[in-house]
Specification:
single chain, 59 residues, 15% helix
Length: 59
């Protein structure tokens, strides 16, 4: 995914489906310098993980 699209998703009020390694995730924030995003799985678990923006896929 491109960093500009991640910014659009973060600023949108819509529920935009994003996947990381086949799992549905919420994007919590981005680190533009490192090209990384902080995400957590959709559902009751809110453990946050930093992942490469390039590894995110929009559904």
């Amino acid at each position: 995914m491109e960093i500009n699209r991640v910014k659009q998703i973060l600023s949108s009020s819509a529920d935009i489906q994003v996947q990381y390694n086949g799992a549905s995730v919420w994007i919590d924030g981005i680190n533009e310098e490192k090209q990384m995003a902080t995400v957590h799985l959709r559902g009751p678990l809110e453990e946050r993980t930093e992942v490469a923006i390039a590894d995110l896929r929009e559904m």
